Amino acid sequence: MRKRSFASIAQLAQRNPLTISPWVLLWATVGIVCGLFAACYWLVLEAIIHQLEAFTGLSLLLVMPLAGLFVGLVIYFLGNPGEIGLLVDNIHFQGGRLNARENPSMILASLASISAGGSAGPEAPLVQVTGSFGTWVADRLQLQGEQLRSLSIAAMAAGFTALFGAPLGGAIFALEILHHEYVLEYYEAILPAIVSSCASYIVFVIITKLEIGPTWEFPQYRLDNIDDFAMAILYGVLGAVAGWIFIFIFRICDRFFADLPAPIYVRTALAGLGLGILAMFFPLTRYYGHHELNLIISSNLGAIALFSLAAAKMLAISITVTGSWRGGIIIPLFFTGACIGKAVALSIPSFEPVLAMICTMAALNAAVTRTPISTTLLMAKLTVISPFTPVLFASLVGFFLAPKVPFIASQLKLQREIEAD
Question: Residue 160, exposed/middle/buried by CB under 10 A (0-12, 13-18, 19+)?
C-alpha cells in the first residue's frame, strides 16, 4: 500500500468540521523542533559566556583577537554562512528556500562571536538555522511556492520568538524584516508564523526555565497626558537621527574591512582586537546588551557618559558585523537607544526618562531594520509597558524618517526586480 502524501491527508481533512487541519499540526511541529534547537543553543551559549566573561581588562586584548581568529578559521574552512541580507534575498528570489549547508559554520562562528563579547546577539543565527529547517521540512513534504515560503518564514519566526518571548512580535518580525517599505507582503505566512512561534516559545521556556516576565526592569510608566504623544514623536525623530549616525559609522567600518587585503581570519582577528580595545574603555559595549541594558536602567551615569557609551556601542556593533563576526543587531540597537534616551532625559529634567528610553529604543531599531510594527510589539513584551501606543508613534516616525536606501540592502526588492526585467 502506498504511503499517503501530506497533500492527500490534507484532502481527507476537508471532512473535518473544525477549522484545525494537518497544516496547523505541521506548523506547530516545526515550532517545537525550532524551540528545541533554540533552547539547546541558548544553554550552550550561556555556558560559554559564563567562562569567557571572567576575562576583563588587558586580557581582552588576547582573548578577543583569538576568538576572532577562531571565527575566521571556521568561516574559512566551513564556508561563509552569510548575513541576514542573504536570508532576505533567498526568501524573495529563491522561492523561500534557505540553504542549510552553512549551518555548522553559522552555529560555531556565532557561538564564538557572541560568547567572546561581540556586540551582536543570537537572533540572527537562530533565524537562519531554524528557517533552513523549515525549508528542509518543506522539501521532505514536496511543498512548492507559497507553501514552501510560508513554512520557511514560520520557522524563522519560531527561532526569533524563542529568544524574545513574543510570539506575535516574532511572527510579524519574520515578515517585516523582508521589506523596507511594504511592511507585509507574504501575508499567507502570518498564521503559520504565529502558530509556529507559540509552539517554539513554550518549548524554549520549559527547557531553559527562563522567566516569562519582562526582560528589562523599567519603572512603570503611566500615560496621563496627551502631550506624551508629542514627546513620542520627538523621540522618534531622535531615534531616526541616531539611525542615520549608526548607518554612517557602519558604512565606514564596512569600507575599511572590505578594502583590507587580508584573509578573512585576519580580518576577524583584527575586529576582535578593536572590540577588545573598546571593551577596555567601555566595558558595557562588550556583549550584545541582553543583561547590560538593565545596568543602564539602574545606573547613575551622567548624560555625557551615556552619549559616549552610545557612540562606542554603535562602533562596536559596526566592527562586529563588518568584521565578519556573526550575530544580530536588534538587542544591541535597543541598548544604544536606551543610552541615548536616558541621556536626553537627564539633560532635560522635565522629560520622562522611561518614555524617552523606550521610544528612542523603538525608533532607532525601526529606522535601521525597517520593522515598526514588530518593534512595538517586542517592546511591549520586553518592557511590559502597557500604554505602548506612544511607542508605536515613535516606531513609525523612526521608520518614515529612515534613509530611503535601507540598511539591509536586500530589503530593496523592487530594485532587484527592475534589474531582472
Answer: buried
Q: What is the pLDDT of residues 286-308, one digit of tens each?
A: 999 988 999 999 989 999 999 99
What is the CA angle 114-120-126, rounded to 5?
Answer: 75
* Integer angstrom CA distances of residue 148 from 27, 155, 192, 299: 12, 11, 11, 47
- Residues 83 and 128: their CA atoms lie apart, in Å, by 9
Q: Which of 163-167, 334-338, 374-378 has the highest mean pLDDT?
A: 334-338
Alpha-carbon distance of 311 to 342, in angstroms, equals: 14
**Cβ–Cβ under 8 Å, residues 64 and 275:** yes
- What is the rounded end-to-end Cα distance, in angstroms, of the chain? 48
Residues 6+ apart with CB under 8 A from 178: 88, 91, 92, 153, 185, 186, 411, 413
Phi–psi pair at 225, nearest 5 degrees: -135, 135
DSSP tag of 4:
P
Q: Say how far apart CA 79 and CA 82 lie, in whole Å.
A: 9
Q: Is 227 exposed, middle or buried (0-12, 13-18, 19+ CB in 10 A)?
A: exposed
Extract the C-alpha cell encoding 183. Answer: 511592511
Percentage of residues in the chain with pLDDT exceeding 70? 86
State how far the Cα of 340 lies from the Cα of 290, in Å rounded to an integer: 17
Do 416 and 93 contact (CB within 8 A), yes or no? Answer: yes
User: Rounded to 5 degrees, what are φ and ψ at 118?
Assistant: -65, 150
Q: What does the pLDDT look like over 141-172, one tens digit per residue?
A: 998 888 888 899 999 999 989 888 888 888 88
